[in-house]
Automatic annotation (TrEMBL):
Transmembrane regions listed in the UniProt entry: 12-32, 38-56, 63-81, 87-105, 117-139, 184-207, 214-247, 267-283, 290-310, 330-349
Organism, scientific name: Mariniflexile gromovii
Keyword check for Transmembrane helix: yes
Entry keyword Transmembrane: yes
This protein's name: Vitamin K-dependent gamma-carboxylase-like protein
Keywords: Membrane, Transmembrane, Transmembrane helix
Length: 477
């Protein structure tokens, strides 16, 4: 039994995934540099262990373990102010850390010895596969709303236009003229093509015979999406490449590793050169150059991964036999948590970090814009408590929504109270469901108030709500 569990291929699968994971996590760290600006030790630790693990080409699994555990604490430290895919990464870092802990407990109290690599492949891989299928499910589900299909505000149309501009294709007269003359048609194409791709990919990944096509389509789709130019999307693409790697056929992974081994020294030198250039750009405070370097390396990395998959999966028409069921049933709690998180906006809970990125979804104020999910599904009132500011001198409450460059938005009460607690001085009069409230603060202390500003420490970490627009839900990350 022990020999069956400890398959040699599991070492390669584990190493392959761990290097993928370390690289995408390093990209996350480079896109969001607050850990370096504020000199946060946990952020430095994540970055260092990822660099060491990639630099040794996954030879020392200790670096991976340290990187995962430190990333878990780093992601938790940053909650709830996180983008959608980094919240997913937080869930996965917690999951992987628990798998590692359970492995060591199992080996300590069991007479049967199993390698870390084999335990990870037979327990973590199935849940990682289920997780990415569920992520696609919610991405598609949230986009099935009326506003996503409105060409003038749809995130699908906006991202496609940004992609054309970022690639400077609109500077070519014939493309610019064609785009201007067929603007609505092109916007509709971008909306439907993105939605169809995100719906088809998980279906292709589920089945053995279509898995190879699904992987190629997924990697090309996310690569093209990353060309939009937003660094957050590049970070997201890196994450998707990582979790798609658990669908790669065993023979393909083995072929890639065996064929790249003769070039390992050159790969190490290239990576050291990349890190050295990053360090130089950071030390000399050329952050723009640093980001352009990350962008360039991401493009090279993405094209390289797509090409080696196509090259070394050649002939594997039927894909590989993979499992969606972990050996240890308790790990199913994580797909359940993913589902609860994804359904949160429809239940009346949080509206941010629910995998609704670029979806135009609106669920606040007792009505949603979804095609078929009923408003009556909302069991909680958080989204129904809309704040209407009647008078204030707190400039922090009247700022501009940077993404849509507009001031015409409101808060839900939970988010409004969080904002009030961060303001030191000023007063505000506001209404919630036709009830009037006021708050006056001086030097961070509440001088006058007729509303309780206390919030649960746990809920403050779990909940985050998006800005609310009056008529439609504009494109938001």
């Amino acid at each position: 039994m022990q020999d069956k569990l400890n398959k040699p291929n599991n070492i390669q699968l584990f190493t392959f995934f761990s290097v993928f994971w370390a690289f995408s996590t390093l990209i996350h760290q480079l896109v969001w540099l607050e850990w370096s600006h504020y000199n946060i030790p946990m952020g430095w630790m994540v970055t260092l262990f990822c660099i060491l693990h990639i630099g040794t080409l996954g030879k020392h699994k200790t670096f991976f373990i340290l990187a995962v555990v430190s990333s878990m604490f780093w992601y938790l430290l940053r909650q709830p102010f996180s983008v959608n895919h980094l919240f997913y990464e937080a869930l996965m870092s917690i999951f992987i850390s628990i798998v590692l802990v359970f492995y060591y407990l199992k080996n300590k109290f069991s007479t049967q010895t199993i390698t870390l690599e084999s335990y990870f492949v037979t327990n973590a891989f199935p849940i990682l596969r289920v997780g990415i299928i569920l992520l696609y499910f919610f991405v598609v589900l949230h986009k099935l709303n009326y506003d996503f299909f409105k060409t003038e505000i749809s995130c699908g149309a906006i991202l496609f236009e940004n992609l054309l501009n970022n690639l400077q294709l609109t500077k070519l007269n014939f493309i610019d003229n064609f785009y201007n003359n067929n603007h609505i048609l092109i916007a509709q194409f971008s909306i439907y093509s993105a939605l169809i791709a995100e719906a088809i990919i998980p279906l292709l990944l589920l089945f053995k015979r279509s898995r190879k096509l699904g992987l190629i389509l997924a990697m090309i789709f996310h690569f093209l999406l990353g060309l939009e130019g937003l660094m957050a999307i590049i970070s997201f693409t890196g994450m998707m490449f990582t979790y798609l790697s658990v669908f790669w056929p065993v023979k393909t992974v083995s072929a890639v590793i065996n064929n790249l081994l003769p070039y390992k020294n050159k790969l190490k030198i290239g990576f050291i050169a990349f890190i050295s250039l990053l360090a130089l750009a950071y030390i000399t405070k050329h952050i723009g150059t640093l980001m352009r370097l990350v962008n360039a390396v991401w493009i090279i990395y993405s094209i390289f991964i797509i090409l080696i998959f196509i090259r070394f999966s050649k002939g594997e028409n039927s894909g590989n036999n993979i499992s969606f069921r972990p050996k240890t049933s308790i790990y199913w709690i994580f797909p359940i948590l993913i589902c609860i998180n994804g359904f949160s906006p429809y239940l009346g809970l949080k509206t941010q970090t629910v995998f609704s990125m670029f979806s135009n979804l609106k669920t606040e104020n007792g009505s949603n814009n979804h095609f078929f999910i009923p408003n009556e599904l909302q069991l909680f009132n958080y989204q129904k408590e809309i704040v209407v500011i009647t008078e204030t001198n707190m400039q922090e409450l009247t700022g501009t929504d940077a993404w849509n460059n507009t001031k015409n938005y409101k808060y839900v009460l939970f988010e409004f109270i969080r904002k009030l607690n961060s303001i030191n001085d000023g007063h505000v009069n506001f209404q919630v469901n036709n009830k009037s409230y006021y708050v006056k603060k001086e030097n961070g202390e509440i001088i006058e108030s007729n509303i309780d500003l206390k919030q649960s420490v746990i809920l403050k970490r779990l909940f985050l709500f998006r800005p609310i627009y009056d008529d439609v839900n504009l494109c938001q990350q």
